[in-house]
Amino acid sequence: MKKFRPLLILSLCGLTLSAAAQTPEIPPPAASAADAVDLGKTVPTAESIAEGLFPDDKCKELEASGFKCMGFKPAIKYSLPATAFKVGSAELPPVLKKQLDVFADVLKTKKNSDRKVRVIGHADASGTPQANQALSIKRAESVRDYLVSKGTDPALLVIEGVGSKDLKNPAKPNADENRRVEIGRK
Description:
five-stranded mixed sheet, 186 residues, alpha/beta, 5 strands, disordered N terminus, single chain, 5 helices, 38% helix
């Protein structure tokens, strides 16, 4: 048995390292939105969303397997997608629905959770501040309603609208990428 002990230790270390080294399979955040990962038109995997929104779950899995968790990455906020919404619209386009289906698959497993997920609506600067604020709330509500229709517990979701206060591309206030919804942990 002593011959296999170093191999066992290396195997366990490798297991721990591989679990800790996994990152969501998504592009890195854009420089102008350093606090959010822009999904663009890619459809992420459920595993990458689960790890991104709930990194503490991976730590709990390690501890349940007898490993000591030395901390975890902070939760990721996702920006959905840069050109999702038409000007003045809160209608969800098909590519956004495909992305939200993956989020719903993950979120519907989090029923009765005290952890909250924020859905933040954004607008470009093409309207008045009041109209942009109302539109950003409608966008967040559209995303929330879609996720709930796919099985997400409504108590898990908190919506917020920020109008055009947090532009992704401040150099071009009316640019498409400013019309978006972000999903992240509260």
